[in-house]
Amino acid sequence: MNYDQSLDYLETLATFGIKPGLTRIEKLLDLMGQPQLRYRTIHVTGTNGKGSTTAMLAAILKAAGIKTGMYTSPHLVSYTERFLIDGQSASEGEFAAALTETAHYVDAMVAEGEDQPTEFEVLTAAAFHYFAQKGVEWAVIEVGLGGLLDSTNVIIPQASVITNVMLDHTDRCGTTVKEIAFHKAGIIKPGVPVITAATEEALDVMIEKAAECRSPIYQKGLDFQAVRLGNQGMMQIIHVAAPGFEFSEVVKLPLIGVYQVENCANAVMTALCLRKNEPRITNSAIHAGLQNVVWFGRAEVLKKDPVIIIDGAHNPAGAKALRDTLNSVFPGRPITFLFGVLRDKDRHGIIKELISPLDAVVVVSPLSPRAMPATELAPEISASHIEIADTIAEGLERAGILAGADGVVCAAGSLYLIGVVRSLIVGVQE
Questions:
Q1: How many CA atoms lie within 13 A of 415 on its CB side?
Q2: pTM for this entry
């Protein structure tokens, strides 16, 4: 298959939907020779921040001189973004080759009477194969959904990272924080260190699971801390301390979201746990990795004059974190949102946390079959000025006009929205 054909192939797989469970992925990987066991891994889950934490850890490993793979989802613009080695996306040819190889095994599996693997299962197996083929030494693997029954939960990691636990994916992981925490805790493996910023009843679940697995657990606020000291331009200055590891350092982070302080703490604590068996992870590597980390679409500044920011903010906690960032980094400046959500998200919670009565909002429909139509969403928003745009490109133009020279344009509400915005802006810049 070429790249376009590989996308067509994935589209046919999407018709099988999401089917939690590990039986299919385990069978597929067994046929492929267990590629996920040919390098060391870190497993990352959480309601918010798992992608950013994954990117920070991958950047630290790369800065340590380690050939590092990174598997994340979803993508913003291209599927190739999901397969990264040392910060570089797979080429379209490499992506297609990995899918083609995996498809052979899928066909063999189905011919034997096994169930058809889902799109995400095939992508996950292809990523594991790609990393093995390219000789990565470490790979940082982000959970797709939940943890316990997620297709990535076939690795035997060196560390299990659980950023936080809040209500999200309630249709699949449970309707309470405790039920969702049970799924997140499913990535905890016997004897493998657990690093988490979970709190209250979610933390109780993590502690219980770690004890059951006899795994050491490191808790933010108890074993490690982080404090935001301020900004230096578009760089955050953060003090991170882990007394038990004799670490107390001020680090710089180019990700401006105030919520990144917690993610930074998780990443540093994980790196400290790993360096007992990986001496290349030095303090210098931690500093260099964090200072050079790139993570698309999370309080990402695409332009500075005028300011255009994108952030998924697809649940209330993410929306609140984004609002806190805007208030902190751009105090007093008028905000114009380019806003759209998926129908199955908590749009009322997102709107409540993100949009103030003083803001202007241009409402659009994200590019997804699950999108909430802009005409239905707009009446649910209270703001100083509300418009509806037919396309994301039109909405971006109108938001820029509304914001003017002194304002800030912020695209938020769905990754299916901000991916298009990023593509439009990067295309203009190039």
A1: 12
A2: 0.87
